[in-house]
Amino acid sequence: MDVAQLAGVSQKTVSRVYNDEPYVSAEVRRRVLEAGEELGYRMNNAARALASGRTRSIGVVTLGTALYGPASLIMGVERAVRDTGYALRVVNTLEGDPTGVAGAVDSLLDQGVDGIVISEPIDDGHGEDLSARGDVPVLVLGAPPLSTPRTLAAGVGADLMARTATEYLLELGHETVHHLAGPQRWYAARDRLEGWRSTLAAHGRAIPPVVEGDWSASTGYTAGRELAADDGMTAVFAANDDMAIGLIRALAEAGRRVPEDVSVVGFDDIPVAAYVTPPLTTMRQPFDTVAQEGLKRLVHSIENPDAPPLPASEPPVDLVVRASTAPPPPRKTPGSGRSAVSSPSGVRPLPALGGGASTYD
Amino acid sequence: MDVAQLAGVSQKTVSRVYNDEPYVSAEVRRRVLEAGEELGYRMNNAARALASGRTRSIGVVTLGTALYGPASLIMGVERAVRDTGYALRVVNTLEGDPTGVAGAVDSLLDQGVDGIVISEPIDDGHGEDLSARGDVPVLVLGAPPLSTPRTLAAGVGADLMARTATEYLLELGHETVHHLAGPQRWYAARDRLEGWRSTLAAHGRAIPPVVEGDWSASTGYTAGRELAADDGMTAVFAANDDMAIGLIRALAEAGRRVPEDVSVVGFDDIPVAAYVTPPLTTMRQPFDTVAQEGLKRLVHSIENPDAPPLPASEPPVDLVVRASTAPPPPRKTPGSGRSAVSSPSGVRPLPALGGGASTYD
DNA sequence: CTGAAAGCGCTAACAC
DNA sequence: GTGTTAGCGCTTTCAG
User: Fold this and answer.
1) Closest residue by Cα to the C1' atom of nucleotide D2?
2) For chain B, how many structural domains are there in total?
3) Residues in domain HTH lacI-type (chains A, B) (predicted)?
4) Quick one: which of A120, A119, A77, A123 has its CA closest to A100?
5) Residues 44-83 of B with CB under 7 A from strand D
6) A197 secondary structure, DSSP code
7) Phi/psi at B297 (nearest 5 deg)?
8) Is A220 in a helix, a strand, or coil?
9) Does residue B142 share a domain with residue B250?
10) Contact of B17 with B29, CB cutoff 8 Å
């Protein structure tokens, strides 16, 4: 360590200075910093990790999708980690990856991380023993598939959000609500489905058959063609906004106007949701809050291995009401067929500039 | 090293086995692996990095946005890195971050990386000396702000794509093309603007004033209100799809039908582009190809520090034609005002299921 | 407040 | 094919 020589102190003192440890005189600290500056010194992270046994980095497992939800969650994590002093190591799992999430966790453990974040876990048939592999704490974001001692979960209360959406539609006067579900391998999709189903059950409403998509607008469109065939259908709760958009297009092509003939509620509040036609009523997810709080709890568990994990707090539920929802159309007189083919539906200006919307709850 | 003992070999031999080095007899290799298995052994990455001087990891600087383009690029990088044996260290720069990209690069260098990827650089007023800081190679994705010895650039040929979009509109018969630009701090936005402007100039067309947004549908909407006021405007090239969607909504509210009255071309081909109304004609970016090729070149530069960098290849330009573009409306008779207020524009079914579209070039 | 010694777990360079 | 000897640059532990 050249810096030590130049500053005329011991190696350890240099270490103290660069680690902001106490018990270094201001004078010595200044001298060391100066010497370091002059030599363009930067600490060697590998050596530090080797000697201390702590890597000061957190591994992140992402599902390799372009989906807004997972991407937003990851970005929330990236944003949140800056305040913690930890670095991020990211590994990507493609859906259909043979080794799955477990493989990704393994590779992270190989690289050396103090904690792990798993974003939007899916049931890939490998899981279950995630936390058994290393003894680092694991934070599962998006939905809690399991909870072993060192596993934390930070959900977004998907079931509660699904309930809110469904009840809103019911309150509008709809007899029942259809559900355009996400792929059931995703825990997040399961939660939304479950929240919808149980709400309907609690209100004693009929539970229509579920249509499942893969989160894409494309499958939403396909599902929409199917749903459009059902004349009794007046309201749909879609598991995400992309599918809702595909769905709305299919409905429009089938001559079913949104929201006059059928109401649609999406999920996520993607940035364009306010600008599609009609502007989408949707459940906004508090990705940032969830990521931030989750990371805080993870760091706590890393730094206090023996303390009990911090409790999770329920994030707020936020229904953004725009123009894709309305009361159901008046009951059809029996025997009448589908209504007119196309919809003149004049375009109404947005209530307020920039995607204004009223917020419910 | 306990594994060495259990297998009855030297430490170095264990090292050889785990590094897949040659010159180890099959028998010994088997014994070592077995011993390792039994002890649940995994190599210590920090020690390895310390001893070898190579971290086997690549740092990634991202701009902390939820934008589709940057996000897709990062995912391409994540996907591409799996085949290289390198790990990813990610650090996030928020726009408006005081330390900027340079700060992010610094922190990566502190953590120890063998190479750096900068995705979608912006001109944050700090830049310029990126590669002077460490001696690791740097890959700049999205647009090349500078090129020092060890800096590679993997552009997406934004200017060429802008040219293609603009010429397509011109060929449709439009007198000229307006441009809804991205924030000019982004090099990518500048390239698109430049490509558009030079194309117009090359064809001797008038160059309308540029309207600038911030990539969001919301600013696209605002810009749309402005543009709608210009009666002569019949075609707009938007710097991304989100803005195009906001723009289209504003036009519709102003009674200007797309594509009958004005044609709109977007940029990116976001997943919902095929399902909005009308389905969006847009320039598709080959994010995956760009990321993959860029990473390959970066790894080459890491592993062959003295060899000249691999040459970049131009990615293909891909115009996806959907329903937001058409020939201009017949010339207005002088003196006639704006046309009717609202647009009945019946919804036409998609040409093919799942966002079918014809591809141009 | 500061320093000396030991060693984290691996790989480099060279022997055998 | 395999082993030996040195460190990599830091932190730890224990003395002052």
Assistant:
1) B13
2) 3
3) 1-52
4) A123
5) 47, 50-51
6) H
7) -70, -35
8) helix
9) no
10) yes
Strand D closer than 7 A to residue B28 Cβ: yes
Choose among A138, A115, A136: nearest CA to A128. A138
The pTM is what? 0.90
Give domain status of residue B312, yes or no: no
Three-state secondary structure readout of chain B: CHHHHHHCCCHHHHHHHHCCCCCCCHHHHHHHHHHHHHHCCCCCHHHHHHHHCCCCEEEEEEECCCCHHHHHHHHHHHHHHCCCCCEEEEEEECCCCCCHHHHHHHHHHHHCCCEEEEECCECCCCCCCHHHCCCCCEEEEECCCCCCCCEEEEECCHHHHHHHHHHHHHHCCCCCCEEEECCCCEHHHHHHHHHHHHHHHHCCCCCCCCEECCCCHHHHHHHHHHHHCCCCCCEEEECCHHHHHHHHHHHHHCCCCCCCCCEEEEEECCHHHHCCCCCCEEEECCHHHHHHHHHHHHHHHHHCCCCCCCCCCCCCCEEEECCCCCCCCCCCCCCCCCCCCCCCCCCCCCCCCCCCCEEEC
Contact check, Cβ <8 Å, A272/B276 = yes
Residues B172 and B234 in one domain: yes
Q: Output the tens digit of pLDDT for each of chain A's 361 residues.
A: 588 888 889 888 999 999 888 888 888 888 889 889 988 899 999 999 999 999 999 999 988 777 899 889 998 999 899 889 999 999 988 877 778 888 889 899 999 999 999 988 888 766 555 555 678 999 998 766 566 668 888 876 888 999 999 999 999 999 999 999 999 999 899 999 999 999 999 999 999 999 999 999 999 999 999 999 999 999 999 999 999 999 999 999 999 999 999 999 999 999 999 999 999 999 999 999 999 999 999 999 999 988 899 998 888 889 999 999 999 999 765 544 444 433 344 455 555 433 445 555 5
Is A57 found in the same domain as A25?
A: no
B30 beta carbon to strand D: under 7 Å: no
Residue A310 resides in a domain: no
Of B37, B47, B46, B51, whose CA–CA distance to B2 is shortest?
B37
- Quick one: B143 and B232 in the same domain? no
For residue A132, give its domain range: 53-154+287-303
Could B277 and A64 be called an inter-chain contact, meaning their C-beta atoms sit closer than 8 Å?
no
Which residue type occupies A100? G
Higher-confidence residue of A156 and B120: namely B120
Q: Are residues A245 and A199 in the same domain?
A: yes
pLDDT at B350 over 60: no
Q: Other CB atoms closer than 10 Å to residue B233's CB: what's the count? A: 20
Are residues B183 and B327 both part of a single domain?
yes
Confidence of residue B148 (pLDDT cuts 50, 70, 90): low
| Higher per-residue pLDDT: A51 or B145 | A51
Q: Say what the pLDDT of residue B316 is.
A: 87
- Spell out which residues of chain B touch residue A55, defining contact as CB-CB under 8 Å: 46
pLDDT at A145: 55
Is the residue at A198 inside a domain?
yes
Last residue of some domain: B303, B337, B352? Answer: B303
Which residue's CA is nearest to the C1' of nucleotide C9? B47
Does B261 lie in the same domain as B232? yes
Q: Which residues in chain B are contacts of A291 at CB distance < 8 A? A: none
Q: Is residue A187 in a domain?
A: yes
φ, ψ of residue A75 in degrees (nearest 5)? -65, -35
The CATH number covering residue B129 comes to 3.40.50.2300
Query: From the CA of B204, how many Å to the nearest CA of chain A?
Result: 35
**Average pLDDT for B6-12:** 88
C-alpha to C-alpha distance for B120 and B299, rounded to whole angstroms: 19
Mean pLDDT of B43-66: 91
- Paired strand residues for A87: A57
* Residue A268, strand partner residues: A284
The CATH number assigned to the domain holding B27 equals 1.10.260.40
pLDDT at A332: 60
